[in-house]
Amino acid sequence: MRYCSLLLLIFLANCTSMGMQDRTTHSALFVDHLNNMPMGKTNYLLWHNSATGNSGDIKIVHSYIHSSGAKCVDYQSTVNIQDGWPMIGIGSLDRSTEFGKACQMPDGRWRIIERVM
After folding, report:
1. Distances in Å between the alpha carbon of 20 and those of 17, 69, 81, 88?
2. Could you list the residue range(s) of the whole structural domain that residue 45 is in?
């Protein structure tokens, strides 16, 4: 019985971690997209994980240089992530869109200045 319980816990933890991996993927692609986009242009990036069915998109609506000299963007970010669960129709679906402003700090990191969900 303990063996079955342990296997079930490992299985369920792995199912939940699939959603976390896709959230991490979305965040990494978001930062990569910010770092490599051309200034002054609208930009769009789509991603899809065929193994989990999860997806997302990142749209740079406006990019500009702030009066402080920082590179900034207005963005829209959407994720469609179904946390893995062994039974169809059970689990949590995160389908959310976020609007915001982000600026690049002097050390190269991006900081979200304003966020509306």
Report:
1. 5, 35, 9, 19
2. 2-116
Q: Taking the complete model, does pTM exceed 0.70, yes or no?
A: yes
Domains held by the chain: number: 1
Supply 12's token pair.
């369920």
Kindly tell me the burial class for residue 79, based on how many C-beta atoms sit within 10 Å of its own C-beta (0-12, 13-18, 19 or more). buried
Tens place of pLDDT per residue across the chain (117 aa) = 443 333 333 333 444 466 788 888 889 999 998 998 888 888 889 999 988 889 999 999 999 999 999 999 999 999 988 876 555 555 666 788 999 999 999 999 999 999 887
Structure tokens at 22: 């896709």
On the CB side of 18, CA atoms within 13 Å amount to 22
Report the C-alpha gap between 45 and 77 in whole angstroms.
Answer: 10
* CA 25 and chain centroid, separation: 6
DSSP code per residue over 29-41 = HHHHHHHHPPTTS
